[in-house]
Design goal:
Order of helices and strands: HHEEEEEEEH
Largest sheet: 3 strands, mixed
Shape: elongated
Number of helices: 3
Oligomer: single chain
Low-confidence stretches: none
Length: about 190
């Protein structure tokens, strides 16, 4: 169902905040590139004090980028959670938070395991850890063309390069990923793989 105008605006604000933070990150990356170029020049000239200053400046900018990435991830996660409840993709509790569906996995490899649909935002250059057959395994996300991926453990990972164009676009993508969760937990449907 469509989101209320208030929910739509709230989701839009989260998306705008994330996009603003992304722009700041790109700007800082450019600054770091320029500082690195300057640092190389100082190294060639043997200017040790200038090297130390520039190295510390670069490290400070890198810390700022990590902070901005974390804040961007939080803004995206807020947009995702609000979208799940606002568009009826998951029922909402009395506070408007989504109550995520659960089920029993019907696929051979995970058959019989309980799973809860969880949607997380993640930078694409990170790897996701999955508990599989008694071991933690890394799932590399870099190089994937997908905007999101739902694993058979019930976790949907929304990648950092998703164009969060609008709340409706985000809802459409989450609906698609929720369909995968339902396939994985519906006997006779998801267990065909």
């Amino acid at each position: 169902h469509p989101a209320s105008s208030a929910d739509y605006r709230a989701i839009e604000r989260h998306i705008e905040e994330a996009n603003d933070l992304k722009a700041q990150i790109l700007e800082l990356n450019d600054t770091i590139k320029k500082l690195n170029d300057e640092l190389q020049g100082k190294k060639q000239k043997g200017e040790e004090k200038a090297e130390l200053y520039l190295d510390l400046k670069i490290r400070g900018e890198q810390i700022s980028i990590r902070d901005l990435k974390l804040r961007k991830a939080v803004a995206h996660q807020k947009a995702i959670r609000k979208t799940l409840a606002a568009y009826g993709l998951a029922p909402a509790d009395t506070f408007g938070n989504p109550i995520m569906p659960t089920g029993t996995v019907a696929m051979r490899r995970f058959k019989g395991r309980k799973a809860t649909w969880v949607v997380v935002y993640m930078e694409k250059d990170d790897d996701r850890l999955v508990y599989d057959e008694g071991k933690l395994k890394q799932i590399p996300l870099a190089g994937s063309n997908a905007w999101a991926k739902t694993a058979t453990d019930g976790v949907t990972t929304v990648f950092s390069d998703v164009p969060f164009e609008s709340p409706a676009h985000l809802a459409s993508m989450l609906f698609h990923e929720g369909t995968h969760f339902n396939q994985y937990t519906t006997p006779g449907d998801g267990n065909k793989k």
